[in-house]
């Protein structure tokens, strides 16, 4: 009854569980490397479906207007719909599947707990314990996802020069990264950029750091800071 009363949430729960399943079979290619590539695409397509359903839930009344597009781009679900479209037809990159896998796992775990509560307050204690441990590490998982989002930017550039990526991919991914940096719901990308800057500045200001390395890092920090969008 609980599942039928929340059909859209249930559909997203099923698609997230399928995303976790496909992502796991890509990261751990138990069925062979050829099959792993197909699971990579399936995971991203399932994530795109989940993101589209979530976006529909957040903005139910679609309008073909600039205002609606601006509103949609503020939603994290729109960001990851774009993310899935960026990588779904690209060369499989293990780093790109971790955000999809971990976000799906966190959201699926939250809804699984609701399903268990609807069934009985004491049902499946072992599963409940695993869900509680996952929830306790949520902050660390979100930071790891943000780290993946950041380091995928140079990875897309490397893929371009190695012949495994398209010319447009780094530019589209840069747009995705600016959206994540400006996210209202998830500040972890912004936080990680700040923390990485502090760590790098601390290291290069040590006397043992060569002058040319210090200058290179400072110019890189200045360049990246100019590319960062303004956050209200």
Question: What are the salient characteristics of this protein?
Answer:
mainly alpha, transmembrane helix, 232 residues
Quick structural overview:
This protein is mainly alpha-helical and 232 residues long. It has eleven helices and no strands.
Mean pLDDT value = 89
Number of strands: 0
- Radius of gyration over all CA atoms, rounded: 20 Å
Intertermini distance: 43 Å
Shape, per Cα inertia axes = globular
Q: Count of helical segments? A: 11
The SSE string, one letter per element, is HHHHHHHHHHH
Helix amount: over 70%
Total tally of structural domains = 2
Instruction: Report the β-strand fraction as a percent range.
Output: under 5%
Q: Outline the low-pLDDT stretches.
A: none
Biggest beta sheet attributes? none
Sheet/helix structural class:
mainly alpha
Subcellular location: Membrane
Membrane topology: Multi-pass membrane protein
Pfam families: TMEM33_Pom33 (PF03661)
Family: Belongs to the PER33/POM33 family.
Give your account of this protein's structure.
- This protein has 232 residues and is mainly α.
- It has helices at 2-5, 7-27, 33-58, 66-72, 76-87, 94-119, 125-136, 138-161, 169-181, 188-204, 211-227.
- The protein contains 11 helices and no strands.
- It has 2 domains: 1-185, no CATH class; 188-231, no CATH class.
- It starts with a helix and ends in a 5-residue tail after the last helix.
- Helix content is 77%, strand content 0%.
- α2 crosses α6 and α3 (33-58) crosses α6.
- It holds the Pfam family TMEM33_Pom33.
- Its main location: membrane.
């Amino acid at each position: 009854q609980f599942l039928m009363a929340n059909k859209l949430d249930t559909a997203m729960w099923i698609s997230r569980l399928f995303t976790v399943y496909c992502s796991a079979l890509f990261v751990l290619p138990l069925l062979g490397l050829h099959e792993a590539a197909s699971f990579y695409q399936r995971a991203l397509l399932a994530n795109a479906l989940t993101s589209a359903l979530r976006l529909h839930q957040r903005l139910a009344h679609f309008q073909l207007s600039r205002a609606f597009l601006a509103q949609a781009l503020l939603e994290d679900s729109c960001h990851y719909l774009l993310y899935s479209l960026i990588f779904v037809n690209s060369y499989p990159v293990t780093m790109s599947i971790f955000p999809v896998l971990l976000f799906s796992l966190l959201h699926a775990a939250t809804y699984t707990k609701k399903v268990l509560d609807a069934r009985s307050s004491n049902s499946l204690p072992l599963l409940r314990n695993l869900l509680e441990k996952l929830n306790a590490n949520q902050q660390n998982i979100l930071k790891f996802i943000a780290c993946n989002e950041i380091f995928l930017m140079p990875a897309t550039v490397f893929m371009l020069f190695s012949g495994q990526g398209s010319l447009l991919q780094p530019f589209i991914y840069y747009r995705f990264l600016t959206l994540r940096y400006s996210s209202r719901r998830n500040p972890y990308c912004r936080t990680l950029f700040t923390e990485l800057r502090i760590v790098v500045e601390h290291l290069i200001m040590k006397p043992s750091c060569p002058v040319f390395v210090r200058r290179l890092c400072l110019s890189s920090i200045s360049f990246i800071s100019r590319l960062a969008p303004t956050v209200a």
